[in-house]
Amino acid sequence: MQLPAATGDKIREAVEALDYRPHAQARRLSRGRSDTIGIVVPDISNPFFAVIAGEAERVATDAGLDLVIWSSRNLITRELACFDRLASGFIDGLILITNHEDDGRLAVAINRNKGRVVIVDEDVRGVHAPRFFVENEDGGYQATKHLIERGHRHILHIGGPSGVMSAIERAAGWKHALADASITPSANWQIFTEYEVGLATEAAAAIFRLSPRPTAVFAGSDAIALGVLTQARAQNVAIPADMSLAGFDGMPIVDLLGPPLTSIAQPIDVLGRLGAEQLIRMLNGAADSAAPIRLPVTLVVRGSVSAPSHRLGFASQTPIHRTGGMIPQSINQGE
Question: Is this structure's pTM higher than 0.85?
Answer without folding.
Answer: no
